[in-house]
Amino acid sequence: MSNLTLKQLRYFAALARHGHFGHAAEACAISQPALSMQIKELEETLGTMLFERGARQVRLTGFGEVFAERVREILRDVDELGDLARASRDRLVGRLRIGIIPTIAPYLLPRIIGDLTRAFPELDIQVRETLTPKLAQELSDGLLDTAIVALPVSDPAFAEVPILTENFVLVRHARQAGQPAPSREKLRGMRLLLLEEGHCFRDQALSFCSIPTGRPREGLDGSSLSTLVQMVGAGIGVTFIPEMAVEVETRSASVSVTRFDDAQPCRTIGMIWRRSNPLAGQLDRIARVIHCACQAG
Amino acid sequence: MSNLTLKQLRYFAALARHGHFGHAAEACAISQPALSMQIKELEETLGTMLFERGARQVRLTGFGEVFAERVREILRDVDELGDLARASRDRLVGRLRIGIIPTIAPYLLPRIIGDLTRAFPELDIQVRETLTPKLAQELSDGLLDTAIVALPVSDPAFAEVPILTENFVLVRHARQAGQPAPSREKLRGMRLLLLEEGHCFRDQALSFCSIPTGRPREGLDGSSLSTLVQMVGAGIGVTFIPEMAVEVETRSASVSVTRFDDAQPCRTIGMIWRRSNPLAGQLDRIARVIHCACQAG
DNA sequence: GATTGGACATAAGGAAAACTTATCGCGAAA
DNA sequence: TTTCGCGATAAGTTTTCCTTATGTCCAATC
C-alpha cells in the first residue's frame, strides 16, 4: 500500500552491507526495531522477501541481490542530486540566455562573451538579438534570463543595472572633416539618417535633436548602423552612431566623425532581469563582469 | 538538515510538469499547502531555488531544469524497482545454484537442466557436484539454493521433497548373464566393488547387503560408477549401480545386469533446501518440474 | 485608484508515520 | 538444560505530514 521510501532503500542498503540488523541499525543511527520495521514494510511493499533470516545470519535472497545493485545506483544518483545543487549554488552553471539590442551587439558582444566564458567556464551562453520591446516581452515570459539594453526600461518587474554610458558622435561625409559640430537647430535642417522604427537608438537621436519621435519623417531609414554610415559616405545625409561603433563602422567609409563639446548626446547601456529571478544575485555578478569588460575596452 | 525524500521529488516533478501549485497538488492528491511546504523544504535542503514564483506563473529556474531531468530519471528507476519485484514474484529469475551428488549428476543433469531452462528461461542455473555432506554444508552457508541428493537427509533446517525412487541393479561380468540374482548371503561372499567413502550410494549398497558401513573393508574402491563397471567388466568383482545409470554405463563394458525380484534395493532421490529460504514456494515449483523431467525418462 | 479574484505562503490543529524502550521467542552454543 | 545472541513484536512518544482556514501579494477589472 504505502509507497517506496528513500529511507527504506537506505536502510536496505545498510542491512545488505552489514548482514546484521543490529549493526546496520547502528550505522543508520536508529534502533534495531526501527530498521526491522522499515525492512519489513519494504518487503511487503515489494511483495517479495529481500532477506533470508537465518538463525545465525541474515542473507540477501537471490532477488535481493539484484535489487541491492539497483538500489545502490539509485542512492548514488540521489546523492549526486545534492552535490549538483551544492555545486550550482556557488559557481554559475547551466544555460544563460542573454538578449541584446542590435545597436550594441556587434560592438560589445565579442568582448562580453569572451570575458563571461573566461569567468564562468561552465556557463552555456545563448544570445538573442532583437529590439528592446521584444526583449522585454521575452524576459517576462521566461525565454530570456537577462538583457542588455539602453536604460531606462522602467518596468517595475525588472531590475536595472547600468553597465556603461557612452556618447553619440555625428557622422558626416569625409569632406566635412574639421568642420565644427553643428548646433541642434542646424541639425534639424540636415538630412538625418536614422534606424527603422523600434530601435531605441533612433528615439534617442531624435530626442537629442528635439524632434518628436512619433511624427512621420521624410528621409530614409536604415536597418543597421553600418548601412547608415555607408549612406553617409555616399553623401546622402548625416547620422549619429554611438561611440563604441565608431572604430568598426567608419573604418571603410569616406566619412568624418565629430564629437559634441557641450551637452553631449549619450545613452546608458545596462543589464535588466526579472526581480523575481532567483538567479538575481548571480546576475549581479555577471553584470559586474560585463561592466569590467566594457570599461577595459 | 532533513534529507531528500522521494515524496519531495515526486511533488517536484509534478510541479515542474504543471507549472502551477494548485494543479500539481491536485495531481498528487494532496492539498496545495502540503505541496508548497514540501517544495519549500526541498529547496531549503538543496540550498537553491528550483522555481521562480512569478506573479502569474511558476517557472523552473535554470538549475531547476537540469535538476528536473535528473529527478525524472531517478523516479523512473525507482518505479522500475517495483516492476522488477512484481515481475520476479511470479516468474523465477536470477541465479539458481543447484548442488547434486555424483551418482545422479551424469544421468539426470542433462535432462534436468534442459527442462528447467525451458520452463524458466530467465533462470541462470549453476551446478555444483560433490558429496552429500559438503552439499548440506554449502546449503546451510547459503552457497547453494537447493541440492539433489538421496533422501533422507534428516536435517531439520532442510525441507525435503522426493523426486523419484529407483532400484539398484547388480552388475556382474558378462559371462554370468542369465544367472539368477544371488541372495544377500551369497552377495556378502562376493568381491563387492564400491565407491569411495563419503558417497551415500556406497552406504546404501552396504546397507542392502546388511554389511556395517563403518567397518574397514577389503577390496577396491572406485571413484565413479563408470570406473566400477569397467572393473567388473575386467572380472575383478561385482557392483551395484542405480537403474538410471544402466544405459549409460553398461553400454561399452562386458558386463551383465541383474535385477532383484523381491526386496529390491532402492534409493529415493529428492530435492532439499533451507526451510528459511523465502524462495521455498518457487523451489517447490522447480521440484515439480524436475519430478516430471525424471518421470518422463 | 479602489476592488476583486487568482495564486502561493503561512498558521494551527489533527492524523499518520516513524522512532524509542521494553519484552518476547527462537535457535544455537555452552 | 541453561544461557545468550538476535531479530520480531508491543506500547508509547515524538516527529512528520497533511488538512482547513487565513494571510498577502499582484494583476486584472471596473
UniProtKB/TrEMBL annotation, chains A, B:
Please give the GO cellular component terms listed in this UniProt entry. protein-DNA complex
The Gene Ontology terms for molecular function here are: DNA binding; DNA-binding transcription factor activity
Family that this chain belongs to: Belongs to the LysR transcriptional regulatory family.
Q: Which CDD domains match?
A: PBP2_OxyR
Please name the InterPro entries in this protein's record.
LysR_HTH_N, LysR_subst-bd, WH-like_DNA-bd_sf, WH_DNA-bd_sf
Source domain of life: Bacteria
User: What is the protein's given name?
Assistant: LysR family transcriptional regulator
Classification lineage:
Bacteria, Pseudomonadati, Pseudomonadota, Alphaproteobacteria, Rhodobacterales
Positions of the HTH lysR-type domain: 4-61
* Gene3D superfamilies recorded: Periplasmic binding protein-like II (3.40.190.10), Winged helix-like DNA-binding domain superfamily/Winged helix DNA-binding domain (1.10.10.10)
**Which key words are in the record?**
Activator, DNA-binding, Transcription, Transcription regulation
Which species is listed as the source? Aquicoccus porphyridii
